[in-house]
Design brief:
- The chain is mostly beta strands.
- It folds into two domains: about 20-55 and about 195-315, Sandwich (Jelly Rolls), CATH 2.60.120.260; about 65-190, Galactose-binding domain-like (Jelly Rolls, Sandwich), CATH 2.60.120.260.
- It contains one helix and 21 strands.
- The strands form four sheets. Strands 1, 3, 14, 16, 19 and 21 form a six-stranded antiparallel beta sheet that branches.
- The chain starts with a helix and ends with a strand.
């Protein structure tokens, strides 16, 4: 009888994966909302249907989301014209990527097929290149590349690609540096090519931001203290959406003076009108027992932000 009990115990222990440790943080039920006046915000719990199948690249007119990337001392800047981005180029040097209408911080899933749709035109008929690179390192491409021919009239475009060798954050680029002139881009959307059915509603933290300051960090969801171990790797993941697209930040820090970071990252990301899963990995350093927290800085714009399925997990060695 004793032998049978021992055999059963060995079987049960062996069936549990060695890496299946529970999350250090699961949900935001114990989190708080830090607001620095005159910023004004409140947080409640609300049921939400987290549909992760829609757009990943957000509203064309998201403040700060798009820029005109260029080397050197060019003074060219994008402007908003007729509900579109207008990029006037006045000092092109003939290299397409020396002028880029660019959005950084795009989160992509390795091996996923995506469809990019947009409208575009130019002040004269010309060709530009739609391109995608990782945001840093060797800046290698992840599979998005397509020359497109523009005319002086608005035309719709669709580009499909499979994301490979993606990074934590990636760029979507319209390379327009071949020649001087103006290019307009509008209604940019990036979505998975195949979309699953929306899941059942889940509990989400809803932050209603009524007033902001010049600093987006003055409205933050702050978790309860997290027991990070110095030198270990962790992943923060969550789903989020907003009714007013914005740039946001996720950071690990201590919750007392001098408020220093406890990770080797300060992740900037864009939140749009559709649900998206965000994931950030970092190594803990300069930790302080009982004072380590995760902060989500959401105060770059007024409006509502929803956050669901928030988790912090320790990565296997």
């Amino acid at each position: 009888m004793t032998i049978l009990r021992l055999a059963a115990m060995i079987f049960l222990v062996a069936a549990v994966p060695l890496h299946a440790s529970p999350p250090l943080v699961s949900g935001l039920q114990d989190a708080g909302l830090w607001v620095n006046p005159p910023a004004d915000a409140t947080m409640i719990t609300e049921n939400a249907s987290v549909d992760l199948s829609a757009n990943l690249l957000f509203s064309t007119l998201t403040p700060g989301a798009w820029g005109l990337n260029h080397p050197g001392t060019s003074v060219d800047k994008i402007v908003i014209d007729d509900n579109a981005i207008k990029a006037p180029v006045t000092d092109a040097d003939g290299t397409d990527w020396h002028r880029q209408i660019i959005q950084s911080g795009v989160i992509l899933t390795e091996g996923q097929s995506y469809t990019l749709t947009f409208r575009a035109k130019a002040d004269v008929a010309r060709t530009i290149n739609v391109n995608g690179n990782i945001n840093g390192g060797d800046w290698h491409g992840y599979g998005l590349y397509q020359p497109i021919d523009l005319t002086t009239d608005w035309k719709p475009f669709t580009v499909t690609f499979t994301a490979t060798k993606v990074a934590a954050t990636n760029n979507v680029e319209f390379n327009i540096g071949q020649r001087n002139g103006a290019v307009w881009v509008a209604d940019v959307k990036l979505a998975p090519s195949t979309r699953p059915a929306p899941p059942a509603p889940v509990a989400a933290a809803k932050v209603r931001i009524a007033a902001i300051t010049k600093n987006g960090w003055e409205v933050q969801i702050i978790t309860k203290p997290v027991d990070f171990v110095e030198g270990k790797s962790y992943t923060i993941s969550f789903d989020a959406r907003t009714d007013n697209p914005r740039n946001a930040y996720c950071l690990a820090r201590i919750n007392q003076p001098d408020w220093h970071g406890v990770g080797d990252y300060n992740a900037s990301f864009n939140i749009g009108a559709d649900w998206h899963t965000y994931s950030f990995t970092f190594t803990a350093k300069n930790t302080v027992a009982g004072a380590n927290v995760i902060g989500l800085s959401l105060g770059a714009a007024v409006g509502n932000v929803w956050v669901a399925d928030f988790k912090v997990t320790e990565n296997a060695p």
